[in-house]
UniProtKB/TrEMBL annotation:
<dbReference type="InterPro" id="IPR030869">
    <property type="entry name" value="MqnD"/>
</dbReference>
<dbReference type="InterPro" id="IPR003773">
    <property type="entry name" value="Menaquinone_biosynth"/>
</dbReference>
<dbReference type="GO" id="GO:0009234">
    <property type="term" value="P:menaquinone biosynthetic process"/>
</dbReference>
<dbReference type="GO" id="GO:0016830">
    <property type="term" value="F:carbon-carbon lyase activity"/>
</dbReference>
<keyword id="KW-0474">Menaquinone biosynthesis</keyword>
<keyword id="KW-0456">Lyase</keyword>
<dbReference type="Pfam" id="PF02621">
    <property type="entry name" value="VitK2_biosynth"/>
</dbReference>
<comment type="pathway">
    <text>Quinol/quinone metabolism; menaquinone biosynthesis.</text>
</comment>
<comment type="function">
    <text>Catalyzes the conversion of cyclic dehypoxanthine futalosine (cyclic DHFL) into 1,4-dihydroxy-6-naphthoate, a step in the biosynthesis of menaquinone (MK, vitamin K2).</text>
</comment>
<feature type="active site" description="Proton acceptor">
    <location>
        <position position="146"/>
    </location>
</feature>
<comment type="similarity">
    <text>Belongs to the MqnA/MqnD family. MqnD subfamily.</text>
</comment>
<protein>
    <recommendedName>
        <fullName>1,4-dihydroxy-6-naphtoate synthase</fullName>
        <ecNumber>4.1.99.29</ecNumber>
    </recommendedName>
</protein>
């Protein structure tokens, strides 16, 4: 039996999309799965170093690792009318060169923020520390991600929605690509296809049994939020559109890559369709 580690973030949507495997509802022949949860910037950095075979990443990172990883079509998170939030203390007026805390250099929100606020003074910190850093005045503002977009302190207010920045930069009409899963190109293609099918099934089953799975996560203290907030959060980031990429999501990722290339974040333009697992290989191989 091969032991395969899946690296994902500790936020509720990643936990939810993986734990159908952890609880034994989904399996894969010849494979024992294990998992590790690390903050998204740590995962991005380890993907740059090729540490994990299967790893959650920010979509904005992907062009930097395209030679070593393929993108998976499942376990994706998009914003649709919502997303990360630029927050500040209530009543504060931000200067042009305000100091801001971001969750990591290679996150999608960081790239979009840097394009929208080229004069801001950026510091990077763990996403769990950003809210308190703003409250204590260590920074003027911060970009909240994950569950904190629903639970931030009443002393804070939203300066700007990342969704609005995305709409302006993209021209509108597309969901905001935030994160997905990447798989190492060192894995044989037929095995990669099997991994993708297993993970897709896990997300599908998680959605089918959302109430039961959510209850199990809450009972085991595997998520940081209460039941009503978890239910709302999962409908944002681990919904039916997370099971498999659709045509609009492909367009959105390509637009993100186009914006990043034109803004100097990438050294070449790419199309996401060229970097997915070619699942049709399975049918050709068996024909």
């Amino acid at each position: 039996m091969k032991k395969t580690l899946i690296a994902h973030s500790p936020d509720a949507d990643d936990i939810f999309m993986y734990y159908a495997i952890k609880f034994g509802w989904v399996d894969m022949e010849g494979v024992i799965f294990d998992n590790i949860a690390e903050d998204i910037q740590t995962l991005n950095e380890k993907a740059l170093d090729g540490v994990y075979e299967i790893v959650a990443i920010s979509f904005a990172l992907y062009p930097h690792i395209r030679d070593d990883y393929a993108l998976l079509k499942t376990a994706v998170s998009f914003g649709d009318g919502y997303g990360p939030k630029v927050i500040k203390r209530k009543g504060v007026t931000l200067k042009r060169n305000f100091k801001v805390a971001l969750s990591g250099e290679h996150t999608t929100n960081a790239m979009l923020f840097r394009i929208a606020y080229p004069d801001a003074r950026i510091t990077y910190m763990n996403f769990l520390d950003i809210e308190q850093a703003v409250i204590e005045g260590k920074v003027d503002a911060g970009v909240l991600i994950h569950e904190s977009i629903l639970t931030y302190n009443s002393e804070l207010e939203v300066e700007r929605e990342m969704w609005d920045i995305w709409q302006e930069l993209s021209g509108g009409g597309l969901p905001l690509p935030l994160g997905g899963m990447a798989i190492s190109r060192s894995i044989p293609l037929n095995k990669s296809i099997a991994y993708e099918e297993t993970l897709t099934k896990a997300v599908h089953i998680a959605r089918e049994h959302k109430h039961k799975l959510s209850q199990m996560l809450l009972e085991r203290s595997l998520v940081r939020i209460d039941a009503p907030t978890l239910d709302k959060y999962l409908e944002l980031y681990a919904n039916d559109d997370s099971i498999a990429l659709n045509a609009m999501q492909y367009k959105a990722i390509n637009k993100l890559f186009e914006i990043g290339y034109k803004s100097g974040f990438y050294n070449t333009p790419i199309s996401v369709e060229d970097f997915m697992i070619p699942s049709e290989y399975k049918n050709l191989r068996n024909s």
